[in-house]
């Protein structure tokens, strides 16, 4: 989980470290038996909406930058596994295609049995469709792995969750 936070001080907005954020997000009590009082809606806005949008957009840009760096680092680390997966999928589909070709040839070479010719023709047509679907799945799977490995397909951007904490000190 990526966490970003800012605090408003005398010098303006400054970023919080991960340790400071974790400290802010800790429960108020360690006991699980105590209920925490519900917060009340503040009488006035804690921050002006444009300031809140600016801080949020800053956090979102940091989040997207970090997520992209993690994605590229993960992709680099996973390249050998992707190559191995591509070889396994290629071998699997080649065996599947060969089995379907052999089944089709067996069905074509055997004369129609004691039944209507249309039934035999339908079986041959079904095997032909099955073979073409296996070839299509093989090419699609290989193309997907190549696209993912090259970085042209990206995972979905992370969904950010925002929390606005107002810590008011009596001064």
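-> sequence recovered:
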């Amino acid at each position: 989980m990526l966490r970003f936070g800012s605090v408003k001080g005398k010098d303006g907005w400054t970023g919080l470290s991960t340790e400071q954020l974790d400290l802010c997000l800790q429960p108020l009590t360690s006991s699980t038996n105590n209920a925490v009082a519900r917060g009340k809606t503040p009488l006035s806005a804690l921050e002006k909406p444009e300031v809140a949008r600016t801080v949020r957009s800053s956090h979102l840009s940091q989040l997207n930058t970090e997520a992209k760096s993690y994605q590229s680092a993960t992709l680099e680390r996973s390249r050998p596994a992707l190559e191995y997966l591509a070889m396994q999928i290629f071998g699997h589909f080649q065996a599947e295609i060969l089995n379907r070709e052999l089944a089709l040839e067996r069905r074509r070479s055997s004369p129609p049995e004691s039944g209507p010719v249309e039934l035999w023709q339908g079986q041959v047509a079904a095997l032909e469709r099955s073979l073409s679907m296996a070839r299509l799945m093989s090419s699609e799977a290989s193309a997907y792995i190549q696209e993912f490995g090259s970085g042209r397909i990206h995972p979905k951007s992370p969904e950010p969750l925002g929390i606005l904490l107002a810590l008011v000190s009596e001064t």
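The beta strands are 6-9, 12-15.
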